[in-house]
Amino acid sequence: MHHPLLLVLVKVTIFSLMLAIGCNFSFEKMRSFWRKPALVFRALLAVVVLVPLVVILLLKLFNLPSAVMIGLAILAASPGAPLTTKRSQQAGGSFHYSASLQLTLAILAVFVTPITLAIFTALFASISPKVAILEVARQVIMVQLLPVSVGILMQKFAPTFTQQVAKPLTFIANSLFLVLVVLVCILGLPMFSKVGELPLVAIAIMVIASLGIGHALGRFDDDTRSTLAIFCIARNFGLALFIAILNHVQQQVIPTLVAYLILGAFVGVPYSIWNKRRLAGLPQEN
């Protein structure tokens, strides 16, 4: 697929996903989530601070190819993956908590993504000339903040219409995302063998460390623990690919993105099964 068509597909997919989030998730419930500062602090510390910090340490410790470094940096700067709320529910997570965190990260990505990328470009010379920070910020506003805001406004001023279109819109958005993932995997799998053993080890460490961070910072006696673990491990694949295309490095970083997607599923699925069984074994409150 040619670059312009891939970029259009990525833009449409992210826009529709964010619009679906805005239409489905209540802003009032998210405000109640924001009124719990300790909960919000732990979540943001884990997802937008500690996971990128792990990646910085990995890039300092491992002598990785430039393309892998750029791919991991972009992933670290892309929190709030689509379908994370559904994935966290499959792990026994709280819908209210995951939906509120999903919407919060979608809004904060406008600031978090460019700032995180700026930190990586300042620390690593091989990344610096290849990431257009201001263009990323402008485009993230267009494809993330704008559709989320439109969805929230639709809920407020046209609630009946929004309820009618929310489910079909979510189905279309999720379908587009799955098509995008399959397409990129088809493009990236032939290059997967070229990633190299050391980069795969680094990616595996990132995946496991991210999961551990979320699990450790979540409350042990609450289903927020599994939710936070899934949110840490699930980076925004669509946004990462979008940033790569903006910076004309998609061909170089797609193998890294695909490797992370595969290893993330390989680690995340068993964790979800284990945690759901763990929660089922806990004594129920009366």
Automatic annotation (TrEMBL):
<dbReference type="InterPro" id="IPR038770">
    <property type="entry name" value="Na+/solute_symporter_sf"/>
</dbReference>
<dbReference type="InterPro" id="IPR002657">
    <property type="entry name" value="BilAc:Na_symport/Acr3"/>
</dbReference>
<dbReference type="InterPro" id="IPR004710">
    <property type="entry name" value="Bilac:Na_transpt"/>
</dbReference>
<feature type="transmembrane region" description="Helical">
    <location>
        <begin position="139"/>
        <end position="157"/>
    </location>
</feature>
<keyword id="KW-0472">Membrane</keyword>
<dbReference type="Pfam" id="PF01758">
    <property type="entry name" value="SBF"/>
</dbReference>
<feature type="transmembrane region" description="Helical">
    <location>
        <begin position="169"/>
        <end position="192"/>
    </location>
</feature>
<keyword id="KW-0812">Transmembrane</keyword>
<keyword id="KW-1133">Transmembrane helix</keyword>
<feature type="transmembrane region" description="Helical">
    <location>
        <begin position="64"/>
        <end position="84"/>
    </location>
</feature>
<feature type="transmembrane region" description="Helical">
    <location>
        <begin position="39"/>
        <end position="58"/>
    </location>
</feature>
<protein>
    <submittedName>
        <fullName>Bile acid:sodium symporter</fullName>
    </submittedName>
</protein>
<feature type="transmembrane region" description="Helical">
    <location>
        <begin position="228"/>
        <end position="247"/>
    </location>
</feature>
<dbReference type="GO" id="GO:0016020">
    <property type="term" value="C:membrane"/>
</dbReference>
<feature type="transmembrane region" description="Helical">
    <location>
        <begin position="253"/>
        <end position="274"/>
    </location>
</feature>
<feature type="transmembrane region" description="Helical">
    <location>
        <begin position="6"/>
        <end position="27"/>
    </location>
</feature>
<feature type="transmembrane region" description="Helical">
    <location>
        <begin position="105"/>
        <end position="127"/>
    </location>
</feature>
<feature type="transmembrane region" description="Helical">
    <location>
        <begin position="198"/>
        <end position="216"/>
    </location>
</feature>
